[in-house]
Amino acid sequence: MVLQGKVRVHILRDILLLVIPVVAIWYVLLVGYEHSLTAQASLKVQSEQEKGNLIIANQIENAFAQFVADLLVVYNSSEFSEYVQKQDEQSLYGLSRLFVRINTQKDYILHQRFLDASGKELAQVDRSPGGLISLVKENELEDLSNSDLFLKTKTLAPRVLYVSKITKEHETETSITLALPVYRGSIFLGVAAIDFDACYLFSFLFAYQSSLTKELQFSLVDSQGMVLLTGDDSCQTLGTNLYALDSNLHNQLMQRDYGTFRSGANVYTFQALYPRTSERLSLTQGRVRLWTLVSTFRIDQLPGLTESFLLMHPLAKYGILFVLLVLGSAVVVVFHLRMGDKQQMRISSLISNYASDGIVVCDADGRITFCNQSFEQLSGYSQHELIGRLSNRFQRQIPLPGKPTWITQRSGHLLLVSLATTEIRTKRRKLENTVEIYSPSHWTPCTFLEQSTAAAFDANTSLASAMRLPSIPPNLTCLSFRLENSKEIGTQLNQTERSKFASDVTLVLARLTETPYPVLCFSFDFFVVLLPDRSPSSLTGAYIAGLLKNLSSSHTAKNMDLSIRMVCGVSFLPATSATLVDLIIDASLASRMVNIAKNERYLYYSEGVRTRYARQRSISEALKDVFSTNQISMYYQAQLSVETGTICGAEALIRWQHPTLGNIPPDEFLPLLFEMEEIEQLGRFVIQNVVHFLAEHSTLLLASCPTFSLSFNLSARELSNPALLDVLGSLLREFRIPDQLLTVELTEHTAVEDLASTNSMVEKLHAQGLSIAIDDFGTGFSSLSYLLELSIDTIKIDRSFIFKYPEVESTTIYKTVLLLAKEVGAKVVAEGVETEEQLAFLREIGCDQYQGYYFSPAVDAPAFLEQVKKNIRT
User: How many alpha carbons fall within 13 Å on the CB side of residue 416?
Assistant: First the structure.
């Protein structure tokens, strides 16, 4: 009983000194986490509001642009021109018939009317609430000389657009009026006006909010702060004044076009809407904000909007603390009851069975008492074969940072892993058990062996010993195989399955090469095979290509076929390398420098390979902070009319001038950016630069050529990134870049890889006012039929075809593309033109434009602008 009383005292003491302080710390952490969740939830909701505002604004602006286009159909029609030239009953009757035809086709047009110079209606066509079209009789036409429509429109200059406020036609119908003054020369003839259904213009607001699963609210307000429409209502003018509800709202909305701010318990996110006109129409006041989209939520709504469990159930943290208190107390009780060591080991063993790393438990003598399934996969041995054997029989540790260790598999091949050990001792510090954890290696042959050399470790002797080589043969060939689609395989297999996969690859390599030595597996991606007595001349490319073909056949795992893609580097001892370590490093370097883009699958090591590898590493290092320097810039290569020789466009190209590495071509650093997953940063850089260039110099460029277009390239990964396309759309709206002044170039491979996806993307880009071009045409696909399926504005024929001129293949592809271009309404640009003979050929066959060194290489912005100015002067 005395002993039990002491145990109770110790338990109570440990709970007070250990458990309660831990629970208090957790309380502070949970409160801080709750505040952090609130801030993150607010940012998440704001992001969704900004996205919604952007989408709705784009749709409304597009619908408004359609209204403008409908008005221009009337304004530019032959009937209207005939009436302007001759105001008589016949021409007025023709104009009325035009109104009826248009009303019949456009169900969102409510009224069309024409007012004479005095403000009296001469012609009017109405759509009744039931949808019937009627021509208003002459005796029912109104005198609108004192209307806001007539008084304001008659003072406007030609091609200046009048936009009315939104008015209510009757209980279920609202309208907005667009009008243009009509002149014959300087004589004012009247006003052409169309009343459109405002519900159609704003219908997307209701549709978008209805599609949301969250209760986000979107409202449309006019310049006076009156709510015109909310996403909860299909089309009803509410009349609430937001500025009266919150005085801070007016100042915030007027200072910026978009943004987010908090006022009291409300958070507002807004986006200004500007009309989109065409054919150089303008508004009375210039760039006018018609409406503003406003989305708001209260801070107390965040739990429901984000569905965060902790925010929705704030009392849950006290439940968590109670559980911690109970668990902590239970741990103290269990500790003081001194659970047996065997039971603890059994629990650890059960847990380790689910670990993805290989786990081995050894006794004090180093004999294995337990191993999990992952280690069975790594070693190839079953658990019953390993228990009772010495652990060091299956592994050879290397005294380097990270504790690299060679595991000798049952097949005799070697697998490099990282080893971590944990010792379990009794209270008297006596060693009882050792837990060994074998994790996948992340070393490549280069990094592992270079690290060994830097640490003054005799890697040659260690490797020979691990491979049980009594001596290194005088002639030795090394094949270093690298798994090129490692990321793809990694997404399909878990760590244990990848261990089995790597073991299978080593067995296949040993069988195919018939090597007498163990295959070395560095990580799951690098496999090294050594072949004795093979001279460089005997190891032909056909032999290596055959090995790669066999390796690329499908492998089965998890009841599915895996297609693996391998590349190979080759080195020779003593022809290219002096030692065993150098031999493996050199072959590994060669495998790293295989150029997949040029359809290479294998590469023999040479000093040039090492030079390229060193340069690649330098470029990779320089890329880490290149966007914070001024080393990268945009160059521009002119595109000229074949017929006139004048500049009619340009292509924006990225250039990198490094202070020590010199000029670094895009084909050197772009693949590295893809590997580093920094291509989005490059995309943002290019988009921002080309848009700012156009915003600053569009007047000069359009003066040079009214149809001038600046093109730039986007990769498939960039085009599939919604964030980049949102940035592009936002900048186009911010700087009001005219339609068709900017062209996005897609490579032929990107365009054809998924036609349905490409068509959808092209439609989105066209909707933002961008032109689309197919770049490097003719390099990848023999069928040209896909051109008929894509809405393409420009086809750029790859430079390789003009280089081959006058070969038959070159002339045929040009003539064929020109015929297809006429079918799809696209223009054709020839790339890489360098001689007068090539240009003469293009002129003869009727090619539209060309670019190339014949006129000029790509130059920096000032030099290109000088070319444009010279083009204007000549």
Answer: 26
**Percentage of residues in the chain with pLDDT exceeding 70?**
88
Q: How far apart are CA 767 and CA 733, in angstroms?
A: 12
* DSSP SS3 for 260: strand
DSSP labels, 743-794:
EEEEEHHHHHHTHHHHHHHHHHHHHTT-EEEEEEETSS-S--GGGGTS--SE
Q: Which residues fall within 8 angstroms of residue 644, CB to CB, at 6 or more apart? A: none
Residue with tokens 């490797």: 463
Most confident of 230-239, 456-465, 511-520: 511-520
| Backbone phi, psi, residue 696, to 5° | -85, -30
Which DSSP category does 323 fall into?
H
pLDDT one-digit tens code per residue, 2-33: 334 545 776 777 777 777 888 788 878 877 77
SS3 210: helix
Domain 341-440 CATH class label: alpha beta
Distance CA(768)–CA(231), nearest Å, equals: 24
Predicted local confidence at residue 350, as pLDDT: 47
Q: Is the pTM of this model over 0.70?
A: no
pLDDT number for residue 555: 66
Q: Say yes or no to pLDDT of 830 above 90.
A: yes
**Worst-scoring range by mean pLDDT, 26-35, 522-531, 661-670?**
26-35
Neighbours of 406 (CB within 10 A): 24
Contact 188, 154 (CB under 8 A): yes
- DSSP-based three-state secondary structure for 220: strand
* Burial (0-12, 13-18, 19+ Cβ within 10 Å), 825: exposed
Q: Does the fold of domain 445-616 match that of domain 14-338?
A: no
Whether the predicted pLDDT of 228 surpasses 80: no
Is the domain spanning 630-873 CATH 3.40.50.300? The answer is: no
The domain 14-338 is placed in CATH, from the list 3.20.20.80, 3.30.450.20, 3.50.50.60, 3.30.980.10, at 3.30.450.20
Q: Give the amino acid at 553.
A: S
Which of 618, 647, 640, 726 has its CA nearest to residue 680? Answer: 726
Can you give the pLDDT at residue 474? 84
Q: Which residues pair with 713 in a beta bridge?
A: 745
Q: How confident is the model at residue 556 (pLDDT cuts 50, 70, 90)?
A: low
Question: What is the pLDDT at residue 345?
Answer: 58
113-161: pLDDT as tens digits: 899 889 898 888 887 766 667 777 777 788 888 988 898 888 888 888 8
When pLDDT is cut at 50, 70 and 90, the band that residue 843 belongs to is very high
State the number of CA atoms in the 13 A half-sphere of 62 facing the CB.
16
Which residue shows structure tokens 């075809």?
A: 801
Q: Are 402 and 388 in contact (CB under 8 A)?
A: no
Q: State which amino acid sits at residue 773.
A: A
Cα-based angle 355, 356, 358 (whole degrees, multiple of 5): 85
Q: Using an 8 Å Cβ cutoff, are 634 and 652 in contact?
A: yes
Distance between CA 119 and CA 91 in Å, rounded?
A: 19
Question: Domain residue spans in the chain?
Answer: 14-338, 341-440, 445-616, 630-873
The continuous run of DSSP H or E covering 352 comes out as helix 341-352
CATH number, span 445-616: 3.30.70.270
Other residues' Cβ atoms within 10 Å of the Cβ of residue 314: 10
Q: What ranges in 540-606 are assigned the alpha helix state H?
A: 541-551, 580-592
Q: In this structure, are residues 502 and 521 in contact, taking their beta carbons and an 8 Å threshold?
A: yes
Report pLDDT for 3. Answer: 39
Nearest partner of 753 among 781, 730, 775, judged by Cα: 781
C-alpha 157/C-alpha 856 separation (Å) is 43
User: Residue 594 in contact with residue 578, Cβ under 8 Å?
Assistant: no
Q: Per-residue confidence at 513, pLDDT binned at 50, 70, 90?
A: very high
